[in-house]
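The passage that follows is intended for readers who have already worked through the single-chain material. We present the inputs for a multi-component assembly, then the predicted structure in tokenized form, and finally a short commentary. You are encouraged to pause after the input and sketch how you expect the pieces to fit together before reading on.
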Amino acid sequence: MTNMTKIKITPELVAEHGINEQEHEHLLDILGREPSYTELGIFSVMWSEHCSYKSSRFWLKQLPTEGPQVVQGPGENAGIVDLGDGDAAVFKMESHNHPSYIEPYQGAATGVGGIMRDIFTMGARPVANMNALRFGSPTHKKTRHLVAGVVSGIGDYGNCMGVPTIGGETDFDSRYNNNILVNAMCVGLIKTDKIFYCAAHGTGNPVIYVGSKTGRDGIHGATMASAEFAEDSEEKRPTVQVGDPFTEKLLLEACLELMAGDTIIAIQDMGAAGLTSSSVEMADKGGVGFALDLDQVPQRETNMTAYEMLLSESQERMLMVLKPGSEEAARKIFEKWELDFAIVGETNDTNHLTITHQGEVVADIPVASLADSAPEYQRPFVEPTPPPAINSQNIKAPPSILGALTLMMASPNLCSRRWIWEQYDHMVMGDTVGRPGGDAGVVRIHSTNKGLAVTTDVTPRYVTADPYEGAKQAVAEAARNLSAVGARPLAVTDCLNFGNPERPEIMGQFVAVIKGMGEACEMLNCPVVSGNVSLYNETIIDGEYENIPPTPAIGAVGLIEDLDLICDIAVKDENDVMILIGPEQGWLGQSLYQEVIVGCLEGAPPPIDLELEKKVGALVRTLIRKKLVNAVHDISGGGLLVAAAEMALAGGKGIEFGPIDTKLPAHALWFGEDQARFILTCKEENLGKIAMAAQFTGLPSGMIGTVKGDALVIEGEPALPLNDLRKAHEAWLPGYMRV
Amino acid sequence: MKASVIVFPASNCDRDVAVALKEVSGRAPAMVWHGGVDLPSSDLIVLPGGFSYGDYLRSGALAARSPVMRAVIEQAKSGVPVLGICNGFQVLTESGLLPGVLLRNAGLKFICKDVHLTIERDDTLYSSDYKDNKVIKVPVAHHDGNYFADDNTISQLEDEGRVAFRYCDRYGNASSEANINGSRNNIAGIYDEKACILGMMPHPERMIAPELGGIGGLPLFRSILDTLH
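Having made your guess, compare it with the prediction:
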């Protein structure tokens, strides 16, 4: 054995590898001996929270994952839903939180690169990227640097790949000061009869390594991402991977070219825990063993140890099992694309992962012990106690409604995100029909007249106050955003970002969120087909710990059957009528009105009535399909007036709000964040039909204004010129980033 | 019309421009891999947008030296029209087929947005169909689109009517506010001496249908077809 593998395994070394005493005992039982240093490294990454989902697995099983539209649920590289006509959408969202805090540019870039590999590993061409970003307070000293790095990292990777980034969301909140969240989502298109999986069935088949060479970057990335941060978090920079979008673009094209033939048995990208995790997944799912010879692995650096090669998270690499005899044809394709191609091993019937380096066996581990029989915990939890509801009468009214609107529209959490999405190529591939800035991004299914709508949503301030209702809201809002463009929601992916699961209160948030999400997904026919869990988003400074708000980001995909029947948020013509659909309660608890105007968040968040959500979504889709409406926007953060103002800005036309019959205080009417609501505009002659359709569905509806002029007009207040509002809305982010 | 689209490693608007050419001419272009030295005889050669070789050196610099470019330069010199879009424009300047250079955007950021362009000439192979519109809307998507050349070259381009498009506002004013990337004289695209080679940063192939945001790019392809059939 080499020197590195002769390193003595001490309790300290085991602990440094994030393996606790009990897990160490388990490990000894599996091997019947002390592990070698290399094996300890393998167990360390495979049993890390990031790879094993040991704290979350038990709960994740409770989410609904099935439906007639589901081609592939969780457990593969990504989920797949049927789109009809032989097409399917492949999608997943994944976190790259810890690395993005340590090194924002590379962390975000490799997050995007990693999620795209998950998609094209299955044989799909990526067609749209999205992201959900949470930064700390704008006044925190690192925020500006993190925003700049993350946005350019996402942009540079996606732009070079030639995959449009069609939307996303960005929040600022001081509770993310030390743990930002970077969640990247990718959607790809595939033919249902041409899907590739990672199960390496069959023995005696060659295992092939393609893509970039292996270097010393990202070693222990998965373990790093499974621990909390402390003051020294920046010293973890070497665990962050470095992205090379150019190589990934070549890898994408080479893989799709090879996939057009019939030579691949199984394929898996090398993501977290690199070569180790990809081998284990392929062998485990295929029910075989893998014998790998590390001397055959293309290496970027000299004298790499087995430990380093197995744990490296160098990017842009894939592992494939090919049909014997097809190696040379495959090699030609990868050589054309100037990528490494190496036969590194063979499948066998041992059910062991056996690694040889310089002629010696450095690891020999039963595959199952690294996969399904990895540790699983049901961690203790305490149920969260949501605060009582707060009466809007008891929340301070603003001096003027339109003045409050201007302040809110100019605030960090509601202002225009143009500065961000103009750095992303959102039109490449020539199929972007719904650009960023609307309710959902829309891409055409290439050379058809059908479309895919994509959105990412969660409102962390709601989830913090009431994880159960907040989780329901995240799913409901995602579904609403799809309905608003005329898309039927098909399924969701999730990125569950939480603090330290070893704290019962955090685990309690997680459990409540799963319950809420599950109910909402069930009711809205949106099964969870893929996802990712990011725990330990916690920082300990001077013995004080701080966890992020529970942030279950939902990525949802919907189908548009006919792109001639879609809608956007922009008001269209003078004298069009504006209608509100859905019940008003004037709910101001945990609202942006509280955050911006009152200055503190209190009370319960708006409750979610899933029956109602289902009805109102279906109604809106019908109205769009029947061409009765010409603009639609869902009402979310900021309430009715913010939604209407966004529609006015998008269409470049003002709105005269009519007298509205209500018992609510004015600020609760205009800024309440009641759920299950949409604003529509239509020609006056369609007003009656829409009112009737709403009544028939049992939903309240009413006219609230008319599209007119170039200002927002509310009786009893000076008009607010659209240009002034636009300036306020567009100014904050570029101004903040310029300093 | 027989068109050839050159595909460099990490070209990524090759399919987009092929779709536009097919849509207008009814005939799919030949997709020509950069590594070959053979280039089919073509009525039009297109260098598409993207990030050839990752743009890790200067944008377009490596692609300009790839094997197929010798054949492209040869055909261009014998009068075959060449259209370079975005990264293709960068390849044209790097290979010396067009003067000047595309520097990093003045704002140092990647910019993807719709911009307005003036049509400086409507009598060329690429612009004859623009007789009715003096201002068009098409998107840009680039990091290095800041056109620079020395004073003599700029005056020569201006004097010889070789500026194809300028960034302008919606009313056609080529103002400094409308100059999104700091290009000299708001230049968004230029011709060679014979107006046979066109390099432009904006993406006409992305504006060929109302559902994509407009049809400002369509006349450019129609112009080519009108002349070349």
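Commentary: The two ends of chain B are 5 Å apart (CA to CA). Residues 3-228 of chain B form a domain with the Rossmann fold fold (CATH 3.40.50.880). How closely did your sketch match?
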